[in-house]
Amino acid sequence: MEPLLELDCRDLRCPMPVIELAKHLTDVPVGELIGVVAHDVAARVDVPAWCRLREQEYAGEDTASDGAPRFLVRRLT
Length: 77
Description:
By secondary structure, the chain is an alpha+beta fold. It has 2 helices and 4 strands; from the N terminus they run E-H-E-H-E-E.
């Protein structure tokens, strides 16, 4: 699954990756994916939790082209 938008949050610490996700959610149409690329270990918990709170779909985790963790979010609303 390739996201329509990929956010580079590699150097950001908690809670900045989810803040960036919130800021950019409406940059993609409903049904599309956003990838949040983050080295911060808290992102593994924070992104799915944010999705539950904001009623968005956490679509899983894969890796960016450089091997960094990438968390996928599908915009539902």
